[in-house]
């Protein structure tokens, strides 16, 4: 498993709640994923 692999829950939230394509999520770093989820929870988008 790569050191920067995203937790499955992050992938699920980003693809199913936020609506980001799985290929885009796969290219994200953990920090990018956290920042994107935070933006979704704070701004709703």
UniProtKB/TrEMBL annotation:
State the superkingdom: Bacteria
The protein's name is Uncharacterized protein
Species: Phytohabitans maris
